[in-house]
Specification:
Layout lengths: L7 H4 L8 H20 L31 H12 L2 E9 L5 E9 L3 E8 L4 E4 L1
């Protein structure tokens, strides 16, 4: 009688080529993904409290987010923030490529402030 030869082919007969650990990892990922998908409330769903939904469920972006603002827009921002009269304005591109707008504003008829507005529309500095 010959001894039986046991190799990988006879052990894995009828099973997939993916190992048991990888099957377990895939199963856990699938269960977690399903749990996350079912637990997230869609934006358009009614609130559970019975109150009317808010008119705007999203956070408003900052001024000019995602695009570069021009000098005219920077002047408007500086005017709105200070309430003064614009004396001069110029755009400066730094060596790293970032664009800044320097706006000089007369405040209260006696004090001059230099306000710096970055390329995204954020007021960086006012003296």
């Amino acid at each position: 009688m010959q001894p039986a030869i046991i190799n990988d082919a006879t052990l894995n007969r009828g099973r997939s080529t993916i190992g048991a650990r990888w099957r377990w990892v895939l199963f856990c990922c699938a269960v977690t993904g399903l749990w996350v998908a079912l637990s997230v409330q869609p934006v358009w769903a009614e609130p559970a409290s019975g109150l009317a939904p808010a008119t705007n469920n999203f956070v408003q972006p900052t001024r000019g987010s995602g695009r570069i603002i021009g000098l005219n827009q920077a002047i408007r921002i500086a005017q709105e923030e200070s309430g003064g009269q614009v004396l001069s304005a110029k755009s400066v591109r730094r060596p790293n490529g970032v664009l800044h707008h320097k706006v000089r504003v007369l405040v209260d008829g006696q004090r001059v402030m230099t306000m710096v507005v970055d390329q995204n529309g954020r007021l960086r500095r006012g003296r």
